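Dear colleagues,

I hope this message finds you well. In preparation for our joint manuscript, I am sending the Pyrrolidone-carboxylate peptidase (Shewanella gaetbuli) sequence together with its predicted structure, so that both groups work from identical material. I would be grateful if you could confirm receipt.
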Amino acid sequence: MLVPSFLQANTLSKDVEERRIALASDTIPQVVDRYSKATKALNTKLLAENNELTITQMVANEGHVLWQRAVKDVQSGHIDDRSLYWSRLKMRESLKTQQVGFNIAPWQRQILVSAVEKSSRGFSDIHFAEDVQIKILLTGFDPFFLDRDISQSNPSGVTALALDGYRFNINGKKAQIETVMIPVRFADFDNGIIESLLTPIYRENSVDMIFTVSMGRDNFDLERFPGRNRSAEAPDNLNVLTGATKASPIAPMLNGKNLNGPEFVEFTLPAAVMTKVAGHWQVNDNHQVTTLEKGQFDATSINQLQQSTSVEGAGGGYLSNEISYRSILLMQQFNRNIPVGHIHTPKVKGYDSQAEGDIVEQIKAMIAAAASTL
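The corresponding structure tokens are as follows:
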């Protein structure tokens, strides 16, 4: 059957993440297809859409519905972040290739991809109740290193979904957590995704605590001294390598220039109470850093690091360290003083719902302990 000319739209090429969908569909089909109604609904609406002015809002709404579905799913006991990740990629693929009810240009498709990225990550869903006295923002990350294990989950992503909108009382005050999901892509960081998220928050002084969370080592680590430079010889989710090494660290970018800031910053988390939280894992106040001048060592103070060249912060030399560095640096630039810092969770091999559920519960207790100091 001939396709009408107005449906013959230019398309965008699929990227590395989207090209993994086929293998994931073969390997973990129940995970990839869990939200298939949402992805099919988007395809149907794209084909019917003939209004250039309303299509972006429609796509953003569909991404928001996906985010809310994943949040509800996890909070109902389905402890898994992966279906959100793979469904978002299926939506991206559709937005790049699906026929649309008007002659859409590639640049318009890219706008739609950006819209679903933002809305399906919770960026447009940060809303605190009016009676809340302690407002907390928490970030998680997508699954990563998927070429090693296509079934990989990320407990920080599970945590973000489990705690979005979570409310609790502490010392007679009402507290609420709102969350977002961060991509594991160097380009997004270089293009200012963290600064875009946090600038209005710091400018308006609209939250009381910020926790960035990622998957790390054997226990929980609170990363005291994030470093400026990248040094991990590991790819992001687009298989991009920065060229950085431990022998030759590289500064990240912002607005087309090297990110300007000190070699190390120090978190403002109330580590003394957070490390006392009991659970399946120990909670460490991690001071270990690496510099070109001294190698790896436990730093005793931020002053000790003033004349050093950062190789690895306490959180390493990858994006988990970088999100912490950027969030603390920006807080300092806005002259704010609230608890901000990074939690590395215990690592999980592949997917482990029991372990990830236990991780969420211990993080809830750590956040409550931190909130008790306000």
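For the figure legend, we might mention the following. The first strand starts at residue 134 and ends at 141. Confidence is low (pLDDT under 50) at residues 1-8.

With kind regards,
E.M.
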